[in-house]
Amino acid sequence: MSRGVVGVVVVVSVVAVVVTTSSCPVVMQTSGQVERRLMNGGFHRDLETTVFLSSPEDLDSCVVLLKETYPPGSYVDPHQLAFLRALGGPDFYVPQMINVETPEHQSPRVIAYFFTHVEEMTDGRWLANITIPIHFRYHRAWSGQNHPSLEAHVHIPHPAVLLHCEAGVSDACSPLVHLEPCPPAGPQLCQWLPVHTFSTSEGAVASVPVGNTDLLDTVLLTTTCLTAAATLLILAALAKKTPPTPPMLSSSSGPVPPLS
């Protein structure tokens, strides 16, 4: 295929996308501002996500999907999410098994879907807000000479935002459809329309403490000494509490008299 033909095909494709997008008002006229923050400290925190939607469409019957991609240094616990859902927490779907014990360098990224409804605000915008527990994994220790801070930074990116409305998807919007899990808990697929989003930040960042390999010899020696000292103390305590052995009867005491 010549360069001229390839150029024509690319131009036609771009024009087709622009025409399709402009004829789909939900996608063309709806935008969202995404903001999130991490609360609490340590390895177990809460992640709050707030989405402000601006749209001339009536979104009262729509469900908002937040498609999350968590890096290997973080995860969500489906069992904990199910417990919170029974108490009024958000609906969700996590399609993969989560091992909560593996460290960061042995863990895959986690894909999770959260479903929520929107509330109309006084300024004409729509609000979606959820707070979920998020956990951070232990990281492989490294040399303190190369990393003086001894902290790993885990970046939680903003989620993809999609809409699923009771009115369905029009023919003009069908080329823009994304097939994602259905609410409230998947795994069947439904038609979702993407929302263009922006934010004042690049996501949430958590700092996780990391072990120092320069202290490995000191840690091993200290652990060995403490273990040996504790073992000796336990043995000494057991020796003091051992009851004395009762004396054996002498054979010179004579025969045992017969029972009457």
Automatic annotation (TrEMBL):
Topology in membrane: Single-pass membrane protein
One matching Pfam family: PIG-X
Compartments, as annotated in UniProt: Endoplasmic reticulum membrane
GO biological process: GPI anchor biosynthetic process
UniProt keyword Glycoprotein, yes or no: yes
Signal peptide: 1-23
Pathway it works in: Glycolipid biosynthesis; glycosylphosphatidylinositol-anchor biosynthesis
Source taxon at top rank: Eukaryota
InterPro entries: PIG-X/PBN1, PIGX
GO CC terms, sorted: endoplasmic reticulum membrane
Keywords: Endoplasmic reticulum, Glycoprotein, GPI-anchor biosynthesis, Membrane, Signal, Transmembrane, Transmembrane helix
Family assignment from sequence similarity: Belongs to the PIGX family.
Function: Stabilizing subunit of the glycosylphosphatidylinositol-mannosyltransferase I complex which catalyzes the transfer of the first mannose, via an alpha-1,4 bond from a dolichol-phosphate-mannose (Dol-P-Man) to the glucosaminyl acyl phosphatidylinositol (GlcN-(acyl)PI) intermediate to generate alpha-D-Man-(1->4)-alpha-D-GlcN-(1->6)-(1-radyl,2-acyl-sn-glycero-3-phospho)-2-acyl-inositol and participates in the sixth step of the glycosylphosphatidylinositol-anchor biosynthesis. Probably acts by stabilizing the mannosyltransferase PIGM.
Protein name: Phosphatidylinositol-glycan biosynthesis class X protein
